[in-house]
Structure formats: C-alpha cells, structure tokens
Amino acid sequence: MRQRWRTFLAGALVAVMAGCTSDQGSSDGPAASPAPSGDSGGGGSATQPSGDNPLAGQTLFVNTANPAVSQVAAWEKDKRTADATELKKIGERPNAEWLAGGGTGVGARVDDLLGKAAAKKQLPVLVAYNVPDRDCGQYSAGGAGSADEYRQWIRSFAGGIKGRPAVVILEPDAVAHTLEGCADNATERYAVITDAVNVLKAAGARVYVDAGHPNWIGDVNKLAGALKNAGIAKADGFSLNVSNFVRTADNVTYGDKLSDALGGKTRYVIDTSRNGAGPYDGGTTVNGGPSWCNPPGRALGEAPTVRTGKERVDAFLWVKRPGESDGACRPGEPPAGTWWPEYALELAKRSR
C-alpha cells in the first residue's frame, strides 16, 4: 500500500499484512492521546441520516494475543518496567486484524477471531486486503491471482462471520489506486469490490470501503465517483487514513467534504493509530529513506472509540498496528508488517 506524502499547491485540499507502501496510500499491516471516553480497550449505512451511528454502544475487541502484549511481558522480565508500561498503551487497546491471503482457509481465521470477540462481548474490526494486483504491484504487492479467485476468497471470509457482529475495512487503497496508481484495471476492481460489499453485508458485517487519505486524492468529487462505482451505496460508509499519519481534524474536514460529495449522509471511520503528531513535515526523505516510511517523531493518536463527538464519524480505530514496520526502507529496518518494538516504544512515549 502507499504512503509517500505529496506537496500540494497552495489552496489544494487537505485533501494477513505487509507494510511498506508505495507512493500515496497506506502501509498495510496492521498511533495514545486520551480516548474521547468510554469504550476503548474494552470496547453506517451510506443512506442513513447523519447522527445515526450504527456502532454506538459497542465495545471494540481487544485481542490480547498481540505482539505488544508479548513484548510487555518480555520487557518486564528484563526489568524494563518503564518501557513495558509505555507499551501497554498499544497492547491493551483495540486493534484491527488484517487478513491478506490464506486462500479459502481465510474463513476459519475469521471464525476464530469472531469467536474470541463474541466470548468477550466485543466488536471485532477486520481488514480485507487481498484485491488482485494489490498496491499496483509495488511495495505491498500480492493479492488474489484473479477476480474469480478473489470472489471465492471473499466468500470464504464472509462465511466465517456467521451472522456475528463485525466491522470490515474493505481493501485499503484499492479505490484510490484506480484514480492514481493503476487505473487500467479500474473496471474489474470496482466490480470485485462491489461484489465484496454485497457478500459481506449479506453476512451481517458493517462494511467501510477504504477511501485513502486526505493528502492523496485532492478532488473529492472524483473520489466520490470512484466510490460509487465500487458499491459505496450498499456499504456502511468509507474509511480514511489507514496506516497513515494525517491528523484527525484534517481527516474530519476531508471526510465531511467527501461525504457531501456522496450526498451528505455517508458516514466514515478514521485510523488514528499513528497520527498523534501528524505527518512528517521535514521533506520527502529522512535519513536516506522516504519520509512516509517509518518516519521519526510520530506518536500514537486518539485511542479507539465509537464515541468520536463528530457528527458523521462512526469510530476512531487503530487499523494499522502501531509498531509494525512500514518496510525495510533504511539499513537495519525490519521488513514490512514486522513487529518493531523500539519504534512502537517511541510512538507510545510521544503520545499525550
């Protein structure tokens, strides 16, 4: 997926799982100021009226089988008590679970995750990330080998839901890439995403089609058209900022404009995992690597919650897992999607 930051002209709009992304979108894989209140860590329809949050009252799922929890235990054993305490900001909070590949066996993984969430009476957030020609064949290349293979995969994914509550973030970057990145396969991509929306909705999931981030597609009307082609009308809304660093306020400004372009009633969710300090603003490169990849000086963002205080924002979510690498963009950095405890620690330390 993509993440390189663009320099916009004055007046432009603020506009399972690998990580280092190419030019514009999110790094896959799977940023902590205080939660707005209540449901974090424990825990809409595109045609629903604004103000009607379909996730209201839900408690988001915390899967304690995560690398941050394991790291906390290891550091406590090594007497790194202060560092372990910092890292609990990540390990004890809800995070999305990424599903990228696995063939038709993906359904068993979904079933397992939803079973664990149901046992805790919590709402899981899943990421479907397997579209053909994923990331336009760049840093997070991969995905299903064909449209038919993807249709089989998404049906297996949906089969694991079995009518239980779940949120699905559908194909990060895929729609935005049809406008900038790999437009040649746009028609097929719109078709498989539309099909995925229908299949997942029929299984009972809340579905948010990914729409990139504010610093990517500046023309919200153009993006709205692409989302319509990708079946947004049948989804619960769209997602923004997956694996990116754009501040929440800028996402809300952009998201409301995009919602207006879709008719004014479309709701959305925002990935706040690593946006506490905003994007790196010191140039397009840092320490010899691209500034979108594992940038220094970043911080955890708002903790996951369905109480956002924003009219059309259903949830602040941690879609990207803070501490997973965006890629081996500099000597010594781990591959994309690999847990990187020292980077995770810096994100946690800088959070408010």
Distance between the termini: 28 Å
Number of helices: 9
Please give the share of residues in helix: 25-40%
Which series of helices and strands comes N to C?
HHEHEHEHHEHEHEEEEH
If strands are numbered along the chain, what order do they take across the biggest sheet? 1-2-3-4-5-6-9
Structural category is alpha/beta
CATH topology description of the domain at 67-268? TIM Barrel
Strand-residue proportion: 5-15%
CATH architecture of the domain at 67-268: Alpha-Beta Barrel
Shape: globular
Taking all Cα atoms into account, the compactness measure Rg is 18 Å
Total count of strands: 9
Task: State the CATH superfamily name of the domain at 67-268.
Answer: 1, 4-beta cellobiohydrolase
Question: What is the subunit arrangement here?
Answer: single chain
How is this structure best summarized?
The protein is an alpha/beta fold and 352 residues long. The chain has a domain at 67-268: 1, 4-beta cellobiohydrolase (TIM Barrel, Alpha-Beta Barrel), CATH 3.20.20.40. The chain has helices at residues 67-77, 81-91, 106-119, 147-159, 174-177, 186-202, 220-229, 248-261, 341-350; strands spanning 97-99, 125-128, 167-170, 206-210, 237-240, 268-271, 285-286, 289-290, 313-317.
